[in-house]
């Protein structure tokens, strides 16, 4: 699976959009971009995933560049409860042996 | 109802002891995992099971022995506990190995003294 690179930490003001970048310049054609987050003392939680097109769900939006070498997770109106570590993972889903491999992630601090 | 549940939530034990952590998922998923999160907060895959069969063992010491009595359960037994085994252990499940979303339990904080 392709390696991903994320900034170690970011701050965001409550109510503003949080834009979390991820670099995955070696991503291959069959690898999806997944985002998970881990709130303190809890298990990781799935947020969203995408292959080529931008995606949106009730939690977030995912913007993937046309060359697929980077992506941005957008939390449109961050709340204090969005403070967490956010993980960007590149993963192919056509392999029975594949599994989520977590890197260091981005620690997002939402401030009042 | 909790989708992926682990017991116990906290476990404090002495070096050399043998302990087990239980995991159950009520989602009907085929695939289950164990992850370890150490003090530096890195989450590392330990084992992957599909339909009670081991798929992946990520060079975990053989003191760690997962057991899957049925598809809904994947228990982790640890022999001769060492200080370095102290960590938070997470169980997770997916509908199939290639499914998109994984569901994680709340974790078991193991402290070896």
Structural features:
heterodimer; A: mainly beta; four-stranded antiparallel beta sheet; globular; B: 113 residues; mainly beta; 11 strands
Task: Give an overview in words.
- The complex is a heterodimer of chains A (112) and B (113).
- Chain A has no helices and nine strands.
- The radius of gyration of chain A is 13 Å and the shape is globular.
- The model of chain A has no long low-confidence stretch (mean pLDDT 92).
- Chain B is globular, with a radius of gyration of 13 Å.
- The mean pLDDT of chain B is 91.
- Chains A and B meet through strand 3 and strand 4 of A and strand 5 and strand 10 of B.
Brief sketch in words of this structure:
The complex is a heterodimer of chains A (112) and B (113). By secondary structure, chain A is an all-beta fold.
Kindly state the number of beta strands of chain A.
9
Unreliably modeled segments of chain A: none
Number of helical regions of chain A: 0
Distance between the termini of chain B: 33 Å
Q: Give the oligomer, counting copies of the same chain as homo and different chains as hetero.
A: heterodimer
Helical content band of chain A: under 10%
Radius of gyration of chain A: 13 Å
> How are the strands ordered across the major sheet of chain A?
1-9-8-3-4
Helix-strand makeup class of chain A: mainly beta
Which helices and strands appear, and what pairs or packs with what?
The complex is a heterodimer of chains A (112) and B (113).
Chain A: E1 9-13, E2 18-23, E3 31-38, E4 45-50, E5 55-56, E6 61-64, E7 70-75, E8 84-92, E9 106-111
Parallel strand pairs in A: 1-9
Antiparallel strand pairs in A: 2-7, 3-4, 3-8, 5-6, 6-7, 8-9
Chain B: E1 4-7, E2 10-13, E3 19-25, E4 31-37, E5 43-50, E6 53-57, E7 64-70, E8 73-78, E9 87-94, E10 103-104, E11 108-112
Parallel strand pairs in B: 2-11
Antiparallel strand pairs in B: 1-3, 3-8, 4-5, 4-9, 5-6, 7-8, 9-10, 9-11
């Amino acid at each position: 699976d392709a390696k991903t690179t994320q900034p170690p930490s970011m701050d965001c003001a409550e109510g503003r959009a949080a834009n979390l970048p991820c670099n995955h310049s070696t991503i291959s054609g069959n690898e999806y971009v997944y985002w998970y987050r881990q709130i303190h003392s809890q298990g990781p939680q799935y947020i969203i995933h995408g292959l080529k097109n931008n995606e949106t769900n009730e939690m977030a939006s995912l913007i993937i560049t046309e060359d697929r070498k980077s992506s941005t997770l957008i939390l449109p109106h961050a709340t204090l409860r969005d403070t967490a570590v956010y993980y960007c993972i590149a993963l192919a889903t056509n392999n029975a042996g594949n599994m989520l491999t977590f890197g260091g992630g981005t620690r997002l601090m939402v401030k009042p | 109802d909790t989708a992926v549940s682990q017991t116990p939530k906290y476990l404090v034990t002495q070096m050399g002891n043998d302990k087990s952590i239980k995991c159950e998922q009520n989602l009907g998923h085929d695939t289950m995992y164990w992850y370890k999160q150490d003090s530096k907060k890195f989450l590392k895959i330990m084992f992957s099971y599909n339909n009670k069969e081991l798929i992946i063992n990520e060079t975990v010491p053989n003191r760690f022995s997962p057991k899957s009595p049925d598809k809904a359960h994947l228990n982790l037994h640890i022999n001769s506990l060492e200080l370095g085994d102290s960590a938070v252990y997470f169980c997770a499940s997916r509908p199939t190995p290639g499914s998109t979303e994984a569901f994680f339990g709340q974790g078991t904080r193991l402290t070896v003294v």
